[in-house]
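Morning. Coffee machine broken again, so started the prediction first thing and wrote up yesterday's gels while waiting. Chain of 446 residues, entered below exactly as on the submission form.
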Amino acid sequence: MSDMQEKTLLDRALSVFAPVRGGEGNRVLLLALNVFFLLTAYYIIKPVREALILSEWGAEAKIYTSAGQALLLLLVVPLYSRLAGAVNRRRLITLVLLFFMGCLVAFYFLALAHVSLGIPFYLWVGIFNVMVIAQFWSFANDVYTNEQGKRLFAIVGFGSSAGAVFGSFITGQLIEPLGVYQLLLLSGVLLGVSLALTLVVDTGAPQKEAPKTETKWGRSGFTLVFKNRYLLLIALMMVLANLVNTTGEYILGKRVAADARASVPEVVLVDGMSAENLALAEAGRMNEIGIITGKFYSGFFNVVNLVGLLTQLFLVSRIVRWGGVHRAILILPLVALGGYFMMGLLPLLVITRWAKTAENATDYSLQNTVRNMLFLPTTREEKYQAKQAIDSFFVRAGDVLAALLVLVGTSIWNLSVGGFAWINVGLALVWIWVAVGIGRRYRALT
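Came back before lunch.
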């Protein structure tokens, strides 16, 4: 594709958001639509996952099952690596998406047969989320050069952000008229649309020659990560990012719960009040606390999603173009450092809310795009196999470490939420150091 090729109307329209060159608009739009449908499919089944495990097993089982996902990925990632080493990218993506589509159909019929699905479905959704999204970005890395990816991934990332927002919205509209289990079939249909778009893009995309120094495919993604310092630093960054973010979610939840309880008066036992009336009054109080909490999170998520969308659409491409990937990768840990420093100094809900809004919105937009750009200069083997290991197991490992930190911090160290904020300050400093190392190696590779 020549840089001098005349721009189409679509190319010019997309150039408002990123430096799209002549003839690039069609493919980048198809990729954005592809990831839009993937994220919509995920956010349709996400509420089904929550409903099944909470109704069947409760919140404690949800925490333990989250840790189980990391253990399960120790088995799944090597299997994926073997498959990736045996087939080309077109067949790999087709087989993986058909497998997950088949699983959704199977879960639908098992639900109709009244089989308990809470824990297996929760585990499956956790694997589905990390593997399918990581595979999409591996494909996007494979069809673009490093120079193209740095310019165009901002538009592709907008498709991801928009899919998350649309999926959450449409689920709220459809869950009552369709029912919980019918949403599984709808999600499967959207995966089919994503597969069709992948095949269209792959047909028109150039097949890159593998570098002569590239080794034979089939090695485990974990092996690739631990033998390459650049990939190992990226994996460590993902662990730290999830550890900090998940611990921050705990801090926010504690602040919200405390403020909600403080805003609703305690039930006072008066003379002549029966045990039944006391229980009813306490239930009414808990319901009011639940409403206050729900309203807070509804507003919080809406602002996070809106800021993330606007950042993705208007800022991400410009930040990468002006500062470079090696500087852009530092922005989220710096935002986190400032936010948790303020939380430690001023332990107020308003500070925690806006610090987490800035952190999450940056994570969902800029960080999500830039961390996928880090794989542009890697080999195809590393794009599919090492990236799958990093975006699945190492991400979940961060969640597991956060759960352990909260457990130890509350039961042994007796930390306040302010204490957890200061721990995150220290973790953010380590994160910045790792990001600097990644930036140096990225510049060397490019």
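The domain at 221-446 is CATH 1.20.1250.20 (Growth Hormone; Chain: A;). Going to sketch it on the whiteboard this afternoon.
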